[in-house]
Amino acid sequence: xxxxxxxxxxxxxxxxxxxxxxxxxxxxxxxxxxxxxxxxxxxxxxxxxxxxxxxxxxxxxxxxxxxxxxxxxxxxxxxxxxxxxxxxxxxxxxxxxxxxxxxxxxxxxxxxxxxxxxxxxxxxxxxxxxxxxxxxxxxxxxxxxxxxxxxxxxxxxxxxxxxxxxxxxxxxxxxxxxxxxxxxxxxxxxxxxxxxxxxxxxxxxxxxxxxxxxxxxxxxxxxxxxxxxxxxxxxxxxxxxxxxxxxxxxxxxxxxxxxxxxxxxxxxxxxxxxxxxxxxxxxxxxxxxxxxxx
Length: 294
Hints:
Elements lengths: L2 E2 L15 E7 L5 E7 L5 E6 L5 E4 L14 E7 L2 E15 L2 E11 L9 E4 L7 E5 L4 E5 L10 E4 L1 E2 L6 E9 L2 E9 L7 E3 L1 H6 L7 E9 L5 E14 L2 E11 L9 E3 L1 H4 L2 E6 L4 E6 L8
Parallel strand pairs: 1-19, 4-9, 5-8, 15-20, 16-19
Antiparallel strand pairs: 2-3, 2-11, 3-4, 3-7, 5-9, 6-7, 7-8, 10-11, 10-21, 12-22, 13-14, 14-15, 14-18, 16-20, 17-18, 18-19, 21-22
Keywords: Signal
Protein name: Aspartyl protease
Pfam families: Asp_protease_2
């Protein structure tokens, strides 16, 4: 049964059996910033990014933060905005909350000087755990088994492309009375709402079907440039929850990517999120942010 988001219903999951509670700060860029230490470095601001499948250190800020990493090899790094060759390090130690995690592989990427992120914690850092993102209490809660959830959660399938792939959920974009189903990647490192890539836009004939309220340009790590129409999406559905008049982006530049679409932090922060990576399930429930302005 569809659930229309008009009234707020604030219910919390039982968190008493959490193995680890990691406080975070929600940045102005809608990214999740956690405090962490890499190889006895200074305390770092690390982004928990569901759109990444490896731990990353920002090489631009390594010296400033006394990060000591020995890079062992070169690897190809593919993202939503291109591919590049980057350095990789094996057998590192990362401290998050009260826990020390050993034998961690770390990718080194040089981000722009104005990016204050010191690094990234990818989704598969916790691939054998249950992860709850509580945007109200600003906590990442790590469990060994699924906690007892309060009423109001909807369960849906979480698709992983492979063991080290990225997490997707199926969403519905309403084009008039027609329902367009799209698999969209969960990307807490992306600050906006919904971005649909060119192949999916073309496949579903989405261009020039919605009110255009702006335009955006993305620059890839491989030097590519892509343009998007910023639209006002009249109706959108995720896990049975409907959202109205949501800003979204439709890519109108053709380039190679296997990702149909991504969901960013400005949408995801409106839900309590529980991720069961092993069973490939996600549980969603509206939180206090659900009716806040986009």
